[in-house]
């Protein structure tokens, strides 16, 4: 589909129509390596890449972003004690209304997906949707083979306040990486699930890091850095 450059910038979160036209007039926008100074110039949007202030952007219908969440950030849009993960994203993505798909605790690190696609958020956070998620959890005390077997067989989750609860959950997979580090795969998304599973075994989790969701792997993305999902990951 062909669209005017200022309309493209508007649809991608670069501000009001007026601001977007201003960016073009000011010579801040390039397409295919050339500065374009006429906001009404039309471009085919499919596969288009443009730069604003030197930063390159693809045109996306819906944004699907992977962030390596550092510790000390909240996933809430209205954070209480720490900055929001959204503060790690550039303004155009925030303006588009990108939100985390599910949540990680403020001290949990690693793979967080964000999108402005409400249907996708709904789908991926629904309890019916069992996307495997891989975590690396460091335990304060040495792990035992018996504990790992119990986590796989199913454990009773404590309530967040530590009271015994009635929710049963299990790890789809669990492997001991070293004396205190467990790599586990979960297919449900319960509140504080990993920490509560460990608590049910009398263990405290000292660090928790998510490395994978379904086919999407964090790879070597630096803490605090983000990237757009590839087409095949998004599919
Ligand atoms: N389980 C937890 O306990 N915390 C997270 O952040 C994610 C999974």
Characterise the protein shown here:
The protein is of the alpha+beta class and 235 residues long. The protein is built from 7 helices and 17 strands. Strands 7, 8, 9, 10, 13, 14, 15, 16 and 17 form a 9-stranded mixed sheet that branches. Strands 3-2-5-6 form a 4-stranded antiparallel sheet, with no helix packed on it. A hairpin with an 8-residue loop joins β8 and β9. α1 packs across α2. The two termini are 21 Å apart. The model has no long low-confidence stretch (mean pLDDT 93). Bound molecules: uracil.
How many strands? 17
End-to-end separation: 21 Å
- Shape, please? elongated
Bound molecules: uracil
Helix content: 10-25%
On the 0-100 scale, what is the average pLDDT?
93
Structural class: alpha+beta
User: How do the helices and strands follow one another from N- to C-terminus?
Assistant: EHHEEEEEEHEEHEHEEEEHEEEH
Spans of 5+ residues with little confidence (pLDDT < 50)? none
Radius of gyration: 21 Å
| Amount of beta strand | 25-35%
Let me know the largest β-sheet. 9 strands, mixed
């Amino acid at each position: 589909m062909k669209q005017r450059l200022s309309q493209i910038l508007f649809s991608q979160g670069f501000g009001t129509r007026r601001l977007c036209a201003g960016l073009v007039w000011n010579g801040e926008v390039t397409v295919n390596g050339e500065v374009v100074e006429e906001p009404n110039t039309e471009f085919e949007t499919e596969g288009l890449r443009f730069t604003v202030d030197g930063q390159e952007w693809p045109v996306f219908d819906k944004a699907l972003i992977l962030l390596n969440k550092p510790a000390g950030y909240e996933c809430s849009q209205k954070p209480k004690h720490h900055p929001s993960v959204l503060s790690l994203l550039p303004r155009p993505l925030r303006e588009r209304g990108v939100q985390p798909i599910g949540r990680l605790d403020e001290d949990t690190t690693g793979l967080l997906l964000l999108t402005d696609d409400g249907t996708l958020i709904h789908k991926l956070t629904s309890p019916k949707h069992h996307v495997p998620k891989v975590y690396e959890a460091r335990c304060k005390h040495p792990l035992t083979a018996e504990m790992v077997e119990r986590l796989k067989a199913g454990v009773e989750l404590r309530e967040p306040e530590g009271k015994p609860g009635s929710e049963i959950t299990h790890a789809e997979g669990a492997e001991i990486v070293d004396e205190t580090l467990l790599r586990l795969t979960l297919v449900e998304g319960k509140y504080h699930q990993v920490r509560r599973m460990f608590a049910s075994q009398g263990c405290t989790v000292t660090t928790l890091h998510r490395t994978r969701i379904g086919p999407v792997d964090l790879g070597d993305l630096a803490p605090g850095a983000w990237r757009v999902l590839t087409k095949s990951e998004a599919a």
